[in-house]
Task: inverse folding
């Protein structure tokens, strides 16, 4: 496959996944803000979203403060935010447009329709009683794109690169969400089992569609340690770090390239660590330190993907 | 203006025989059904995203080309003649190009003034003596055909720097089959869908000598080019890679593409970028679209470019008037399809005539394309004519003029209902080890009442073109 094609497909997958993750975060925060539960001051939740995305500075330059309206506008529709849902969908669609000879007609039509609707929504604005509907819509469109890809695309390199982008992005998102939320929620650690705790940790689980899974796996109260275990090490939880790295691992094996030895080694090592790792050890080391290293490790894998498959001109 | 030929109607209420089935459908179908079909077509084109970019347009870079559901229908006998005429013309153009870059017999024979060829900036000195597989230069040609008062066909221009539009021909057909399956079932409409197969076969047939299983790619300037949709479409239909300049590189005299597996050799490049931008080492040094070292490989026959470098000289409008002579010279035959009578403004007496008759004539820039830089006398304002007159006086060599042909019309949906609009036809001719065509082409329609400009960049639309089998 052409390196530039692989590059576009990878970013197509990543961008759509990013749009979905952003919608998930905003949605959960929005729901929480309606509950008015707990001890957390209202804007802190919204501010946390900016920390997760690493966009504090960009936001501060454009908006007076992290109110619900401002953060939603910035993260959902603002063209000046490179990671806004609007721009993520545009990127996904532009990358697909560049590879219309590779993606299936159904994939292209779905993404293009998503983009056309997105543009319309941006013109009309999100109605104040339609915020949740909008986030639902983003998730559905992302599910649709992923589903169509899964259901129509030949299992070859194109498929591999789209999945690779999708799951690296998802891994990164899960790590960041856990890191930031964990911080925000720490003050309530002493209050394990209380109502505030139930809603706050429940919200975190819901943001990665893990609330039901938690119940199914643990049949017990929500505790921070188990949440971390579920989101990091549980292979069966489709948005956990472990599940994401499993998928990344199988894709770098499947995309057969003589250039990929180092990438395969790094991902394989990471996969093994997650497979045999224990949550007690991770917490013992310090969850924040661990997650910081995960984020930089994922960044390193991204760089390796870049130099392995999308090799620059001089090579 | 003289009588206008209506493609569908022989008399105001009597359709021509080959239009009978469609005219009947149009007559007997409720207007809301027709409206629904049109809306369906619109929606489907939007979703497929068959757009083209418009230069200088402000909002967004994409726009849909309007599609009209009334087909342009060509009866079998007319098409056979057209096909023979087009193949004849394109083989003469190929022979001409090979000749001027080799022995220059046609210049020695005095059929074309040598300085008009050798002094033309589209004549590529670098191509002199370069041998191409099969001696083919214009692998893909789009020849614009118009029809005048009595229904006679003329060649309006040859497009040899690969012409666009073929994707619309294919998409329009797909759309019509979706909207009107019953019309396809009830008459023999010849298929065009195999065009991509023919193109691929044709490109593979001109690979460098000795290459087994040649690797073909489509080279595009990128997604901001007006015809990008078509480049991607053709690559996909042929099942080959769509590449940009930075996907390719030259190593040890061969062209490779950069892939996730490493370097992969390329043998035939269907390029949709101009000569000037192909190779910064050989042509424009500021080109970022091209591939450094490509031309050197090409000269040595290690890679095939389609169309060939230096082909532009043959579709230059100053060369157009000589094509009938080329046909006589190389084929020993009379042209089957005539040229539109043309004045050359470089000749003082013809210039004088044209300047006196500007409001009646169409004046074109010799090297213009896409409907830019032309004057349509009868519809131009006095001011426009005055401005154009100044441009001509400043550089008469740069212009030719033609009578304003009463282009044939075809019924077309417009705001006020169905009304006649002027059309032309661009069939596509493929040259490889043999010359191939699919029956049909792209019919373009000028949507503005009375307008003769069919270019999509100037507000034209398209129609499906049906060639009947009998």
Result:
């Amino acid at each position: 496959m052409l390196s530039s094609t692989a590059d576009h497909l990878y970013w197509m997958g990543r961008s759509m996944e990013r749009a979905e993750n952003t919608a998930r975060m905003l949605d959960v925060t929005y729901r929480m803000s309606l509950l008015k539960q707990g001890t957390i001051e209202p804007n802190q939740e919204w501010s946390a979203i900016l920390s997760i995305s690493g966009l504090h500075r960009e936001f501060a330059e454009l908006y007076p403060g992290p109110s619900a309206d401002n953060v939603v506008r910035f993260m959902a529709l603002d063209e000046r935010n490179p990671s806004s849902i609007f721009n993520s969908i545009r990127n996904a669609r532009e990358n697909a447009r560049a590879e219309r000879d590779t993606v299936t007609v159904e994939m292209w039509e779905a993404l293009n329709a998503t983009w056309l609707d997105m543009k319309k929504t941006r013109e009309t604005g999100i109605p104040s009683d339609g915020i949740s509907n909008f986030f639902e819509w983003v998730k559905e469109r992302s599910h649709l794109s992923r589903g169509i890809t899964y259901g129509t695309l030949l299992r070859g390199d194109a498929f591999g690169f789209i999945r690779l982008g999708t799951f690296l992005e998802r891994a990164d998102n899960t790590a960041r969400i856990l890191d930031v939320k964990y911080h925000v929620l720490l003050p309530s650690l002493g209050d394990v089992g209380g109502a505030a705790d139930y809603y706050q940790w429940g919200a975190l689980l819901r943001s990665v569609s893990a609330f039901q899974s938690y119940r199914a796996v643990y049949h017990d109260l929500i505790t921070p340690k188990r949440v971390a275990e579920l989101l990091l090490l549980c292979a069966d939880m489709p948005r956990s770090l472990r599940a994401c790295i499993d998928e990344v691992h199988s894709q770098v094996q499947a995309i057969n390239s003589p250039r990929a030895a180092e990438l395969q080694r790094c991902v394989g090592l990471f996969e093994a660590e997650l497979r045999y790792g224990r949550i007690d050890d991770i917490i013992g080391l310090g969850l924040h330190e661990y997650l910081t290293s995960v984020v930089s490790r994922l960044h390193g894998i991204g760089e390796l993907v870049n130099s392995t498959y999308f090799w620059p001109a001089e090579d | 203006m003289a009588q206008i030929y209506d493609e569908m109607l022989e008399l105001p209420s009597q359709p021509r025989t080959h239009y009978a089935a469609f005219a009947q459908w149009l007559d007997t179908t409720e207007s809301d059904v027709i409206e629904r079909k049109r809306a369906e077509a619109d929606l489907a084109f939007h979703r497929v995203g068959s757009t083209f970019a418009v230069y200088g347009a402000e909002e967004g870079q994409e726009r849909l080309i309007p599609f009209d559901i009334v087909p342009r229908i060509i009866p079998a006998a007319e098409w056979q003649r057209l096909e023979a005429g087009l193949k004849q013309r394109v083989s003469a153009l190929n022979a001409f190009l090979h000749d001027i870059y080799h022995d220059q017999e046609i210049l020695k024979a005095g059929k074309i003034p040598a300085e008009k060829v050798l002094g033309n900036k589209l004549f590529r000195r670098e191509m002199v003596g370069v041998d191409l597989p099969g001696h083919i230069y214009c692998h893909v040609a789009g020849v614009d055909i118009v029809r005048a008062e009595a229904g006679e066909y003329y060649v309006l221009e040859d497009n040899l720097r690969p012409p666009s539009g073929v994707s619309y021909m294919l998409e329009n057909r797909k759309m019509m089959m979706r909207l009107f399956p019953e019309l396809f079932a009830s008459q023999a409409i010849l298929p065009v869908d195999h065009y991509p197969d023919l193109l691929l076969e044709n490109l593979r047939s001109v690979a460098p000598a000795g290459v087994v299983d040649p690797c073909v790619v489509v080279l595009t300037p990128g997604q901001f080019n007006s015809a990008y949709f078509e480049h991607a479409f053709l690559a996909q239909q042929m099942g080959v890679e769509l590449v940009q300049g930075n996907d390719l590189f030259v190593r040890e005299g061969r062209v490779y593409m950069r892939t996730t597996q490493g370097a992969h050799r390329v043998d035939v490049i269907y390029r949709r970028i101009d000569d000037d931008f192909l190779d910064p080492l050989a042509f424009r040094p500021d080109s970022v679209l091209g591939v450094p070292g490509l031309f050197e490989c090409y000269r040595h026959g290690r890679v095939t470019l389609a169309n060939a470098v230096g082909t532009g000289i043959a579709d230059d409008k100053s060369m157009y008037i000589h094509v009938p002579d080329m046909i006589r010279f190389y084929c020993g035959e009379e042209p089957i399809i005539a040229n539109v009578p043309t004045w050359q403004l470089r000749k003082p007496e013809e210039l004088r005539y044209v300047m006196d008759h500007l409001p009646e004539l169409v004046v074109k820039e010799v090297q213009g394309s896409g409907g830019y830089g032309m004057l349509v006398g009868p519809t131009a304002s006095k001011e426009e004519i005055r401005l154009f007159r100044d441009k001509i006086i400043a550089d008469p060599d740069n212009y030719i003029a033609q009578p304003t042909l009463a282009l044939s019309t075809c019924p077309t949906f417009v705001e006020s209902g169905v009304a006649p609009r002027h059309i032309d036809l661009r069939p596509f001719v493929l040259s490889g080890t043999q010359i191939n065509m699919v029956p049909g082409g792209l019919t373009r329609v000028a949507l503005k009442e009375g307008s003769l400009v069919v270019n999509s960049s100037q507000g034209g639309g398209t129609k499906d073109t049906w060639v009947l089998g009998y």
Summary: The radius of gyration of chain A is 19 Å. The mean pLDDT of chain A is 89. Residues 3-310 of chain A form one domain. The CA atoms of residues 214 and 220 of chain A lie 8 Å apart.
